[in-house]
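Tutorial, part two.
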Amino acid sequence: MTMEQQRVRDAHIMVVGCGALGNEVLKNLALSGVGHVVVVDCDVVEPDNLPRSVLYSKADAQAGRKKVEAAAARLQAMSDTMEVTPLFGDIAYDVGLGWLRRMDVVIGCVDNRWARYCINRLCMQAGVPWVDGGIDGLEGTARVFMPGKNCYACNLGPEGLRDLRYRMPCAGVVRRSMAAGKASTNSIIASVIGAVQVQEAFKLLYPEELAAGRLTSLVGSMFCYEGEHLTTKTVRFSGYDDDCPVHERWNPIEATPLNGHTTVSDMLAWLRRQTNSEAVSILLDRDCFVDKVLLRADDSQVEVMLPGRAVEDFAARHPRLGGMPPQSALYQHEYRAIDATFPYQELTLSALGIPDREVLHVTADGKDCYFELSEL
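Running the prediction step on this input gives:
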């Protein structure tokens, strides 16, 4: 095995998104001999996925199998040397920063700006480069973002910021395109952009070659492919605002023996001892914790005890709330920091919505500190 092949075999790569684009990226990684892959997605296989997804079968769709599980099984059948870790969850909330900081590169195969923003924020915190890809109809783009050089968030204009939380799964994109009379996304455009993404990811494994100019990266640029008339171009895409809060690097990070089963009380006590501080607070940077909602109509209360992201679904199922959206009919009482005054000290960190291997952002006597939870 050559030194170049060994570097690919030793690589740790995370792929976020297991739709048409993610399937092509994962297939290319397996055929190229990448040794360690973490696969992230929060959806199940649907019939609409099958015409564009090489890793899924009709049986997967009929069973409603999780995409990450179906993809992992197929990849391991393709490559007996690849170690695949499936993570079922939303990259915005369910994947701890500890996973990302162990990666050499992250490849984003998502279909909305909010997911890209979250990948970018996590990669900036972990100091890991990431490769973005996007496809729509017969068009596609690929970009590379490197901490300290360029930033996805800094390239979002006013429209992009307004549209940040707009989300539509791949099946929804297909239905929207068909309704508009446009060509739907297909496996061909996914294979083109997926190949470029993997090529760019591999370049990042050779920083000395990039520094010497023997390789050229898409860092600060965007590759554009248009299939109807078979045209390509590369344009500058290098926004980087020094004042952007997304650039904050979380460093150093200290490992802990604690995990999601640890109670708030035990976590705070451990942090006080570890930092030799009295005033310790865990900042909930990703999401808040909601203990109750107040009905504005009569000022009555309903206990929730869930992360903020779960409140809307909770309201939709609760008989008293009748599906009323929190922003219009309810007032949610939330916590964005956990300290000695938090009234639910026996709750576990998992109950607060803190994911496996998360890095806790802690203030100890006013100083920022970072502690990584162990795996459950």
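Residues 168-178 have pLDDT under 50 and may be disordered. In part three we will examine how such features are distributed along the chain.
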